[in-house]
Specification:
It is a single chain. By secondary structure, the protein is an all-alpha fold. The protein is flat and about 55 Å long. The protein starts with a helix and ends in a 14-residue tail after the last helix. Keywords: mRNA processing, mRNA splicing, Nucleus, Spliceosome. It comes from Henosepilachna vigintioctopunctata. This is Splicing factor 3B subunit 5. One of its GO terms (biological process) is mRNA splicing, via spliceosome.
Length: 85
Amino acid sequence: MGDRYNIHSQLEHLQSKYIGTGHADTTKYEWLVNQHRDSYSSYLGHPDLLNYFAICENEAKARVRFNLMEKMLQPCGPPPDKPED
C-alpha cells in the first residue's frame, strides 16, 4: 500500500514540474500541442537536424528555424471549442 502512495506522489511531483507529462484531465488537444512543441524544440536544439531540414526543404537554416518557431505558437491550429456545462 505504501508503494502505491509513493508512486502517486512521485507522479504528481513529476507532473507539476514538467507540464508535458500530462495528467488525468489533459485533453487530446493539449497532449498533441505538447508533443508538437517538444518535437519542434528538439529540432531547434539539435543543429544537425536543423541542417538536415534546411537541405531537404532547400531553405536557409535561419528560415527553417524561423518556421519552426512560428509553428510552436499554434502547432495544431486553434483550440477546439469547449462545451458549456
